[in-house]
Amino acid sequence: MKSTLGLLGTLCLVAGVAFLTVAAWIALRLAADALTAALVIGGVYVGLGLICFALVRVVGPKSAVSEPPPPPTLSPHAQVIGGVVAAFVEGVMAGVAARRK
Questions:
Q1: Residue 46 sits in which domain range?
Q2: Per-residue tens of pLDDT for the chain, all 101 residues
Q3: What does 77-89 look like in DSSP terms, one character per residue?
Q4: Which of 1, 26, 41, 81 has the highest CB neighbour count under 10 A?
Q5: Number of compact structural domains in the chain
Q6: What's the whole-model pTM score?
């Protein structure tokens, strides 16, 4: 639902910016020639883009140092199995070491 509303809001903003750009073009074209209108509208968009990039750098994500999550706890059954497996591996490694001597 949030995604749909966000997409709808973005589409409305794009349509609004398009109409406002056309209106600005018409108003500037009446006051000056087409080249001046294009330069003014292009300059405004470039300026807004640069301001947005500057805001991203200033407001960007902070590198917050947080505590690492606690290690997962094992059930008593898993702890017993882990001990048995560790003992088995240790025994196998001892056997391999004895065979090499």
A1: 2-59
A2: 778 888 888 888 888 888 889 998 898 888 888 888 888 888 899 888 888 888 888 876 666 677 888 887 878 877 788 888 888 889 988 988 888 87
A3: HHHHHHHHHHHHH
A4: 41
A5: 1
A6: 0.48
